[in-house]
Amino acid sequence: MHLEECIWKNLEKWHNKTALVCAQTNCSYTYLQLYKKSNALTSFLCNLDKLKQSDRVAVALPNLPEYAIILLGVIQAGCTVTTLNPLYTSDEMSHQLIVAEAKVIFTTPETYKTVQIALQLSKLHIPIIVVRAKNDSTLPHGAIDFDEIARNHCDAKFDLRRSHDDTVLMLFSSGTTGLPKGVEITNRGLVSSLHQMSAPKLDPISETSESEQEVVPVVIPMFHIYGLVIVLLHGLLKGSKLVVVPKLSSKLFVNVLETYQPTVLYVVPPIFHMLLNRNNIKPSHFTNTKSIFSGAAPLGATDVMALSEKLQGKVNVFQLYGLSEVCLSHVQSSQVDGHRKPGGIGFLLPSTEAKIMSTTTGNEVGANQLGEMLLRGPQVMKGYYKDRNANDAAFTNDGWFKTGDLCYYDEDGHFFLTDRIKQLIKVSGYQVAAAELEELIRRHKDVDDVAVIGVPHEKFGEVPKAFVVRRRDSNVSSFAIQEFVKSKVVHYKQLIGGVSFVDSIPKSQAGKIQKIELKKY
């Protein structure tokens, strides 16, 4: 089954239901309108000169309802969607455009100039299609108007010969270990992941009926696989109402909670901590909310329990774990009471295999033993686009994908994430997980946020250093933070590298701490 067949299979049941609504402009589309407009775009692309099946189509947009039209329209045309962060500089965009060999790009008037310069740097001469979210926006000279394309009526059936192993998404890795790499997700991988996360007892989102419809805010950037697959496509598959938030602010987020009363909420750690720490976010905002999920970076078990307590135990709070390379689906927490564990990331999804390999011996280890998680399943990526060295490093000879994540599972088969292997701090031969220290320091009453990195040390090779954001009106000293940690951990985990106070922790839009930036401080 192809992606669009999955999305449209229940169109008759909920064609008049709202599919997407913009939290800022109130622009909305029903499922029938979404279907018609994506078909109109498919027709346009199929007739576009120099665009052929399997070509890459770039999308440099903020979160907008039109993102779904473009995603489905491009994939229906047999092309590959490659997403770009609209906040990128021209240099950053040009790298991705060159790697992807993009043939068309979608953007907004606000980002048009950046895209133009990126195309000049890339030496690409391709059509720029502009989405005008604001009615008063002027169409830039030389751009193609998206609205004009989407207004065209098209009832055509597209009989394109496509393989289930064709690449439908090319998303770029975070680039924490070098320049971002193009991750190729196939139709088979994407559809498999959507079916896996819809498994009974695991899926928090119920299918839309005549009387009930889930309400799911889209606050995660859709250029990231978390926002694109877990929230957008998963929501559309179940017939949910998706409340799209173009630019997140505390005020707008509270308005979304009050106006739309979400039933399921997907967030990243910075938003999670906003829910936990902001006094203007109250339990009454979550009257209809069944579950809150946080992904993209680990949370401490104490944070998960603290938010659950703030919401008076009436909302289930979970951690999500995944990677772009496995379509963000391989483990998931059970929705059944009594089958969840604090700090856990869940059970393996159907059709997924995993094993834990010791980082010292390279041998497979058993329950409650730490090591690197290796995965195998239909949702695993085809590979990194035209990057043989990266593919050789990512896969074993017998096809297991090496996640680079330090994990363990318990006797019940429940998995726990400790840290990224590359973020381990090696102190005199001991391995220290930065995430463990971050969770500990967040418990301090005067700490609002924290990040821990390894810094060079003449005697020990590398030692932990903490960057701390104080809570408002706090004057806690670096010595006090160091003593707090010293009282709770073994000697080699102590903050020998010191404590620096900062106004904020640099994070990506997906909520991941940008530790490369911290090393420049």
UniProtKB/TrEMBL annotation:
Q: Which residues form the AMP-dependent synthetase/ligase domain?
A: 9-385
A Pfam family cross-referenced in the UniProt record is AMP-binding_C
Any idea where this protein resides? Peroxisome
**Any one biological process term the GO annotation gives:** fatty-acyl-CoA biosynthetic process
Q: Which UniProt keywords apply?
A: Peroxisome
Known SUPFAM superfamilies for this protein?
A: Acetyl-CoA synthetase-like
Q: Does the keyword Iron apply?
A: no
Q: Which terms in the Gene Ontology molecular function aspect does this entry carry?
A: long-chain fatty acid-CoA ligase activity
Q: Which GO terms describe its cellular component?
A: peroxisome
Q: Which InterPro entries match?
A: AMP-bd_C, AMP-bd_C_sf, AMP-binding_CS, AMP-dep_synth/lig_dom, ANL_N_sf
Q: Where is the AMP-binding enzyme C-terminal domain?
A: 436-512
Domain of life of the source: Eukaryota
The entry assigns this protein to a family as follows: Belongs to the ATP-dependent AMP-binding enzyme family.
Q: Which PANTHER family match?
A: BCDNA.GH02901, LONG-CHAIN-FATTY-ACID--COA LIGASE
Q: What name is this protein filed under?
A: Uncharacterized protein
